[in-house]
């Protein structure tokens, strides 16, 4: 008898061997030929004449594709398989050549072979897009629902245009709307500290703006300690916020009435700061963000304005007055570069007006003089546009963060230390805060 060509079946023809026709029995695991690739997943349906299942399930999630032996070749009972079942298991599963499509093999493979091939399209490895960048969109939607709070205070002599400038900043009559004053009427003189709140909406973004107007600063004959009412008002807002924070059952969103920005108006004398101006900014610079501006800058020539600005910056530096943005609060080199440009331009020389005039076929905000129209938003006429961009477009959020993280924390630490680490709260205060 001639020996078969296949070397795997040489031992089947030795004398004494028992031969069984395995055409109706599922074969045991046999070692696959390295040159034969695994079948693709979509090729799995067995032919009607073949009794062998097309695929086998590996233990641990591995899926094997069995390679049946040639039909008509007998296989001896008790032959030992190599544990791969004619396929490479996906992952590290132990392959069973028989699979689950039919009956289990009569003889279990004695070895546990680990598949060396890895899945190229398996779902166990996260290599695709996850979507972490959508956090910004989530924050935007949540913030737009709650809205923003911004509280601004104006301080300065009477007649410097404090209320007018605020109206010009937000292009709305926010400083007198509650009093019912018309646009063409004169703004009444402020005789006490009062706050007016409005909700301004632009592009779907809502902001609750609170303008705190103060009486003419330094208008009295005796101006001793005239800054105390303003300092008291600022600290009272910190105290309200602190009481809400230390409550056992506090509100989900604490109303924020803290002053985020204090615009201090400097008279356009062209000489130097008054001692009262220096004293006020020195006392309040550690409790609120102070932004000095030169009011009614159209009363000075361009040369006088530049000289006056340099003189004011020098006097503030010699007096140790820190105005916003402070150098120690710059977070990185980019912030430092941007803030250095702002500090070099301060104090901003501004002109405020809520009246419109026709200039070159366009309606513009301005002040009419004997020699022409001073356009408020024209950078060649004044620095109002720079102040507006600085306050609203670039540093509004930073003003709020500095107020909360620096000025409020300083007040909070001082109050808690004064009371032994625990702020006293009466039952009346608790009931009022929960209303």
UniProtKB/TrEMBL annotation:
Keyword Nucleotide-binding (UniProt)? yes
- Gene3D superfamilies this protein is in? P-loop containing nucleotide triphosphate hydrolases (3.40.50.300)
Septin-type G domain boundaries:
146-418
GO MF, one term, reads: GTP binding
Segments of skewed composition (Low complexity): 103-119
Note the PROSITE patterns from the entry: G_SEPTIN
A Pfam family assignment: Septin
Q: Does the keyword GTP-binding apply?
A: yes
Which UniProt keywords are given for this protein, alphabetically ordered?
Cytoplasm, GTP-binding, Nucleotide-binding
| GO CC list | cytoplasm
Q: Where is this region: Disordered?
A: 25-123
UniProt lists compositionally biased (Gly residues) regions at: 80-102
Q: Which domain of life is it from?
A: Eukaryota
Q: Which InterPro entries match?
A: G_SEPTIN_dom, P-loop_NTPase, Septin
Q: Look up the signal peptide feature and give its range.
A: none
Q: Give the UniProt subcellular location, in the record's own words.
A: Cytoplasm
Similarity comment? Belongs to the TRAFAC class TrmE-Era-EngA-EngB-Septin-like GTPase superfamily. Septin GTPase family.
Q: What is this protein called?
A: Neuronal-specific septin-3
